[in-house]
Amino acid sequence: MQDSRDYDAVIADIGKGVAGMFDSFCNRQMAYGEHLTQIFRGNRSHWYMPAFPVVAFERVELRYFAADAWTNISGQPLSINEETGLLAFGYTLGVDPIQVRVTWTGGYWFETLEPDDAGYPSAVPALIAGCTALQPAKFLLPDEVRTAWLMQSREIWSKLDKLGAGLADKPDGQSATAALEMTPFVKRMMNGYIRYQLT
């Protein structure tokens, strides 16, 4: 059974589900993305981007109403912290319904190929390799997060009724994957990666 690939799709789905669980728990996007866009209310003096560390803030724009065109304010007195994803305006931009739109690249990059896959190892994205604001190593998925992901994925895998033996059991005796939550130890590992940002 160890050499069988019958469960590859199930294992991949578990991994994706755990990644989504981590994003929700930490109120952020862990995975690296390029040219991401987010729109938020401008009645604030700062904002933390959901995908960080940040490779580059590409564009910051402002508008008052949905019918208005976006105005590029990237050259205004902005303060940024690429490591924490902080974008500080220096003052409250305005009152509702003013909106801000930010385009940026950021998040943690990690290898998605297996050692026996063609093209392994993957090349680090060019934008990360050419980043001058932070060392490229800052954008690699931390070992702690990877370990937490593996532990939570294995926890879910261990709860699965892989052979369907529980089909004849009572509902409360079957695999309880719907009720699975992050284990206390995994939560402790991920606490340090939570993004505290009010909407």
List the helices and strands and how they pair.
Elements: H1 8-26, E1 33-41, E2 46-48, E3 54-63, E4 71-72, E5 79-81, E6 86-88, E7 99-106, H2 126-129, H3 143-159, H4 184-190
Antiparallel strand pairs: 1-7, 2-6, 3-4, 3-7, 5-6
Helix pairs in contact: 1-3, 3-4
Protein architecture, described:
- With 199 residues, the protein is an alpha+beta fold.
- It folds into two domains: 1-30 and 141-163 and 173-199, no CATH class; 32-135, no CATH class.
- It is built from four helices and seven strands, in the order αβββββββααα.
- The chain has helices spanning 8-26, 126-129, 143-159, 184-190; strands at 33-41, 46-48, 54-63, 71-72, 79-81, 86-88, 99-106.
- Strands 1-7-3-4 form a four-stranded antiparallel sheet, with no helix packed on it. A three-stranded antiparallel sheet has the order 2-6-5, with no helix packed on it.
- Strand 5 (79-81) and strand 6 (86-88) form a beta hairpin.
- The mean pLDDT is 88.
Count of DSSP strands = 7
- Please, how many helices? 4
Uncertain runs are none
Mean pLDDT: 88
What general outline do the C-alpha atoms trace? globular
Strand order of the largest sheet: 1-7-3-4
How is the main sheet built? Answer: 4 strands, antiparallel
Which structural class matches the secondary elements? alpha+beta
Helical amount? 10-25%
User: CA-to-CA gap between the ends?
Assistant: 48 Å
Sheet-strand content, in percent, reads 15-25%
State the order of secondary-structure elements, H for helix, E for strand.
HEEEEEEEHHH
- Return the domain count: 2
Using the CA coordinates, give the radius of gyration: 21 Å
